[in-house]
Amino acid sequence: MKKLSLLAILPFVISCRSQEKIDLANLNLNEPIEQISKFEDRLLVGVETVEYPFSLLLEVEKSQRYSFDGIDLAGQRIIFQINSETLKTDSITRLGGGHIDLKQAKTASELEESLKRYAADDKIYGVRIELKTQQLKASILKKLEVKYGKGTKNPNTDHGLYWNLKPQNKFILYAPDYDRLIILNNTNLSKTCYWDIMNGLIDFGGCNNEKYMADLLKNATKPEDVRDKPTLKIDKNWNINNLIVGKTTEEEFTKSPINKRFERVTEIDGTTGKTNEIYYQNTYHDFNLFLLSVKVIRRTKRKTLSMVTPSTTLERSTSHLKIT
How far apart are the C-alpha atoms of 45 and 110, rounded to whole Å? Predict the structure, then answer.
């Protein structure tokens, strides 16, 4: 009878263990990626400049796996930050706007491929937690204040607070105006400065902004060092080489000889989340190609090269040719 009782409760014990949540409040934020994520969840790896432009992001969508000091985070977006030397450059930030390039990683090999592509570490150094509801924001804030005391007011936002936890080598940034709680292991970060779009520039004491930004952009190549620039021929109708304005599709452009080191950029309306425009820019933005979405047969869409709006002008300077 005892054996039967043990057998009866064993599946229950196993089930409970499998549902144990990862408490993000207790992470050291130097854990290996495989320790804090599972491929059973939808994992997206890549770049999202509005969220944070200078590190690789691992986004976990609608997971049931995470909590924060006993608070269930089911359904919230969880975004881990991963150090990437490749992204310490200005190639995706000079013009502002939003750039998103996220790729799903379904296996360990696909994750490893993305890490190699961005010269990224195999461990995290930060986490960004989405706070969708006012109740969740209030509950999280209460937990933070009980554990760390009152936070310091972030002067750049209406309701933002931050904690500089020197013994733990951590920054905690509570940004309810942007639905975020951000926790960073600052061991390899500046101890005096922090910047992102949601918090602005925070001075923890003695911040040298110029030095800080120079370190974030330390791998940026100087424009004068760029080689093998494409040759452009623009006719009287503003057609470029063999690209026909109003007819050439995005797919045709990407396969053309002119497509050297061009980067696809999606500009997003921060209020609505809708796409304002899509354009391609070369490594240092000396040339931009804007794309216009048009309807075609069967209600599908394709994007065509567009440089015929009244605001389109051609500027010449001593260093480059630029379309604005």
Answer: 10
Task: Note whether 264 and 290 are within 8 A (CB).
Answer: no
Cα distance between residue 99 and residue 54, in whole Å:
12
Q: How remote is the C-alpha of 202 from its chain's centroid?
A: 19
Nearest to 82 by CA among 23, 140, 34, 20: 34
Tens digit of pLDDT at every position of the chain (324 positions)? 544 454 545 544 444 444 689 999 999 999 999 999 999 999 999 988 889 989 999 999 888 999 999 999 998 999 999 999 888 876 555 545 567 888 999 999 999 999 999 999 999 999 999 999 999 999 999 999 999 999 999 999 999 999 999 999 999 999 999 999 999 999 999 999 999 989 999 999 999 999 999 898 888 777 667 676 667 788 888 888 888 888 888 888 888 888 877 778 777 775 676 777 888 877 555 566 666 655 444 434 455 555 433 233 333 322 333 333
Closest CA to 301 of 226, 257, 249, 262: 249
Which amino acid, 38?
A: K
Question: Which residue, 28, 24, 25, is CA-closest to 167?
Answer: 28
Q: Smallest Cα–Cα separation from 24: which of 104, 106, 105, 81?
A: 81
Report DSSP letters for 191-243, one per residue. SSEEEETTTEEEESSS--HHHHHHHHTTTPPPGGG--SPPP--B-TT--BTTB
At 85, list the tokens: 């030397």
